[in-house]
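Shapes recur. One chain:

:::
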Amino acid sequence: MKIWCCYLCFTREEDDIEEVGEEDKGEVMGDDVFGDKDNLEGRLRNEDPEMLGFAEKPNEQLRLFEDAVVAMRDGAAHWEGAARDGALFSSFRISRHSEGEASSASDGAAGAKSGVEDRDRDSYNKRFKVQSDFHEYNFSTAVTSKAGSSAISAERDYQISQGSSFSSKNQMFYHTVTMADGGDKNASKSRDGKDDEGDESGRLETEYLEVRMDLTDDLLHMVFSFLDHINLCQAARVCRQWREASAHEDFWRCLNFEDRNISIEQFEDMCRRYPNATEVNISGAPAIHLLVMKTVSSLRNLEVLTLGRGQLGDIFFHALADCYLLKRLNINDATLGNGIQEILINHDSLYHLQLTKCRVMRVSIRCPQLETMSLKRSNMAQAVLNCPLLRELDIGSCHKLSDAAIRSAAISCPQLESVDMSNCSCVSDETLREIALTCTNLHFLDASYCPNISLESVRLPMLTVLKLHSCEGITSASMAAISHSYMLEVLELDNCSLLTSVSLYLPHLQNIRLVHCRKFADLNLWSIMLSSIMVSNCPALHRITITSNSLQKLALQKQESLTTLALQCQTLQEVDLTDCESLTNSICDVFSDGGGCPMLKSLVLDNCESLTAVRFCSASLSSLSLVGCRAITALELACPYLEQVFLDGCDHLERASFCPVGLQSLNLGICPKLNALSIDAPCMALLELKGCGVLSETSINCPLLMSLDASFCSQLKDDCLSATSTSCPLIESLILMSCPSIGSVGLHSLSCLPHLTVLDLSYTFLLNLQPVFESCFQLKVLKLQACKYLDDSSLEPLYKEGALPALQELDLSYGTLCQSAIEELLAFCTHLTHESFHPASSTLLPFVIAKPFTISKFEGS
């Protein structure tokens, strides 16, 4: 069989639709392209035959054209079938600019068309547009005989010139189709209307067709599934297709009219449109009683119903049973019935019920499938429950419920696992005992703000979470009862004002809170699973003993009376004891090796003002903060992995030893009373001792030290400098400003510093610089400010003997050199780039400016 290709182009008079009303806009979008959103033939029927170039026999020619379009849409299979059935097309030529003769079509074409009309079209998913970027197209069909020994090839040329290219915003899929015709490439295109026969053995011509498809409704459905209702409504205004896609019931399963001013008629219309809606929220809507009755009568597939801020009559709760698929009912801040009558809630499939802040005298609930129920903050005097599968019950802040009513409601649900009765001031130990005996699977209990309970006679062995905030009856005797809850994981005892001590052996305890317990003095915990402890604002607390294999962080801030801390926590890594003013030096043993915290990395002891001598020997400690510990006079750290230490405010520190430590930098200039220092830091590169005016004994072993600032260390002597130079050979910058005890012996030791490039000897009592010239060959910066004992000959080696050949900067400010010495220095030391002099004669100014080097500072009168 030969081939069959068609090039189609549909001309659109305007690219964009002008703004019209919603109804007109829908009609325009529906009829604009094909007349029918799925019917390509409809578009062709709407065209003027002469516009398509059918001058003669327009109806027959148009029918043939439509048949070709239908066949192309159905694919090659239809073409083959049409050929086998003898559907032969005659050759014809169409031109917008010239008229031609057209042949009649064969009977097979009509049969093909009728077959196409009977096929099942998926009009919901497909809207094709066929388009090319050219203005003239050829349509060729292969005509095949049914007998089949030879094929009669007829070529029909359709030249359709379009005024403007057609482009749709919804065109998204692009597909290139290759087709070939069986006619001769140079087939005659006569304008006399006669058919030209092609040679069967001629060359096949391959042509490309670009097919563009609109956004299918399936794709729109997927895109619109990410939109909320407001955006869906906006999308519906774009076109008819989008309006129909956005109105799909899948997007309107949940009807949310919360706080919406919706009328009864509007709500009825929505219920008619979407009868399969499964979730409705009309909380805060006007006439809520009428709306909810319309809901239960119209939406039989309802699964979730949310109501609130209105009055719900007794008739609603009777009609509720008709919503047999209802799973969740949420009512908030509503008056049930007339507020004084009993309300019966009877439903066989409901599994979640929430009645919060509701006003009702008595409620009776019979829901055999109910699993979770909340009556929180509801104003009711009695609740009768017949819910054998209920697992979670929340009656928090139900102040009018009596102790007996709570007991009756709870014990009627033997499968309870969670009970919240916080702020129920009537609850007693008797009720808790009954619940413990009946609800053997109880795991969660919140009895906060229940002043009448003490738990002394209550046993809850399966309990995992216990919250007892502000329970005035909880005392140290209550801890014995709590110890029987051996599965307990979370315990909260905040604001238990009568609690004085806690001693618990709970292997599964993970979290404990003790906040604002004014009389609480002693804590003793043993739990291998303990991972979090919060103790705060317990002013009487003085002793803590904790044993745990899981605790990683311990914060005990502002425990002013804490004096004793014993820890056996193998995984503890962070401890914060800020403002624990009563801690003594014994705390150091707790956090040293062998003290029970072998993995401790960070320790904060800020403002622990009772510490006087701190000694830590830890193989794991990496950060230590002693900020504000003003009473410390001695510090000894043997922590090889210590990387950070903070000593701000340690004003009275006299002796310090860092041997060994992993510090890379250390600033001890904030310790003005330091007189003895020992450092063994293999990684230290920066050491600052500026202001340690009484420092006289030093031992610094830092092989990687590159910068040492010992300014104002007036007691530092030559032997200390010599020892430091020997043990720290990589020093590049050495600041000895105002170190009057340094002499020639110490300066000669600088020969051990081959990398020394910066030397500051300002404000010293040096008499000559010969030791510097002989020892510091790589020196680049030399500062000699206010060295008043240096005479004119002290600098002669610089410009007469070529000493310090690498020197670039020389500072002689506030010195006593005469004018002639300075002139000679400037004349011969051409390698200097920066100089500072003071005082200087004004006669030097022209000479200095003429020098080729740069003057960084020139001070003079």
Remarks:
- The two ends are 111 Å apart (CA to CA).
